[in-house]
Amino acid sequence: DGDGGAEGDAAGYPEQNITIVVPFSAGGPTDTVTRMIADPMAAALGGKIVVRNVEGAGGTVGAGDVARAEPDGYTVLMHHIGMSTAPALYKDLGYRPLEDFATVGLVTEVPMTVVARQDFAPATFQDLVTHVKANAGTVTLANAGIGAASHLCGLLFQAAAGVKLQEVPYQGTGPALTDLVGGQVDFMCDQTTNTSGQITAKKIKAYAVTTPQRVQSLPDVPTTAEAGMPQLAVSVWHGLYVPADTPPEIVEKLSGALKTALADQAVIDQMAKLGTAPVTAADATPDAHRAHLEEQLTTWQKIISDAGVQPS
Ligand code: MLT
User: Fold this and answer.
1) How far is ligand 1, taken at its centre, from the CA of residue 109, in Å?
2) In sequence order, what are the beta bridge partners of 235?
3) 101-117 and 204-209 as β-strands: parallel, antiparallel, unpaired?
4) Which ligand 1 atom is the nearest neighbour of the CA of 22?
5) Cα(9) to centroid of ligand 1, in Å?
6) What start-end ranges are recorded for coiled-coil regions in this protein (predicted)?
7) Cα distances (angstroms) measured from residue 164 to each of 81, 90, 151, 225, 309
8) Residue 29 Cα: closest atom of ligand 1
9) 160 C-alpha vs ligand 1 centroid, how far in Å?
10) Contacts for 240 with CB less than 8 Å, ≥ 6 apart
11) Does the complex come out with an ipTM higher than 0.85?
């Protein structure tokens, strides 16, 4: 804008469209969460937000793109727990979660569900475990690529059950769930944002939720702890990022807009229907998000290496 200097840019921000990169396909959980908050955030900022899906390699392609984008506040990343697991899964990630990004704020935390095609034989979670152990060579487990939350949940399931299954990777939950509904794959573990509607419609069957408490929108589905596998405990936190050198004033503006969006009753209601809720205002901040990311990087590094998974 010709006035030079980051402070001048921050004062007029936003002066052009802001792009939020979703590192998974359209119609999946990350996309759903992003589209819920994009308009209320744009309204709070007095600008326009467009959502761009940059899928591939379990979210790491889109994340890498944003790490290398201009640090001007016009390219933002929505990513989830995969930001903290990828360094343990990829030898050559091409970006560093803590060094290459500035955290804007946490957004939500989404429970996961262990789900199967509607006509898959096992009736209960315990039956599922028995069935996959007996049929490890033929059972197929869908995921959204190495680094995806569904991949992580699948790893934890296999480690807890002591079984190695045939994994079928997709570019996101959107296409994976389409194939699950169509019966092309047997089962998967994915987020309530996208599975709960299909479960309620009886297009897929649910065995368990991966949170300590049952999910309000799925009251009949037991927790993994109730079903005998307390080790399978994971929920998918989401957060917004910008490239590391983005002016702090712009990061603050984005975080403020995020807080406004998360307090929007329509957003709260939509999230509740999908089994989740916004984080508190205190967690929708750069510092709380960064502290959470630091803790999660350590936690998942250990869990993934304890599960015997080597980065590749
Ligand atoms: C998606 O948006 O497709 C998902 O969050 C993928 C995943 O991590 O399982």
Assistant:
1) 13
2) 111
3) antiparallel
4) 2
5) 34
6) none
7) 23, 20, 13, 21, 12
8) 2
9) 22
10) 20, 76, 77, 78, 103, 104, 105, 107, 254, 258, 289
11) yes
Residue type (1 letter), 211: T
Helices assigned H by DSSP within 49-167: 60-67, 82-89, 125-134, 149-161
Token pair of 135, please? 């049929």
Which atom of ligand 1 lies at the shortest distance from residue 172's CA?
A: 3
This prediction has a pTM of: 0.93
CB 275 within 8 Å of CB 218: yes
For residue 50, the tally of other CB atoms under 10 A from its CB is 11
Per-residue pLDDT of 90-128, as tens digits, reads: 999 999 999 999 999 999 999 999 999 999 999 999 999
- What is d(CA 34, CA 20) in angstroms, rounded to the nearest whole number? 8
* Ligand 1 lining (C-beta closer than 6 Å): 24-25, 28-31, 80, 82, 144, 148-150, 172-174, 190
C-alpha angle with apex 302: 229 to 103, nearest 5 degrees?
A: 105
Digit-coded pLDDT (tens) for 205-254 = 999 999 999 999 999 999 999 999 999 999 999 999 999 999 999 999 99
Ligand 1 pocket test target in 36, 109, 112, 150 with most atoms within 8 Å of CB: 150
Residue type, 186: D
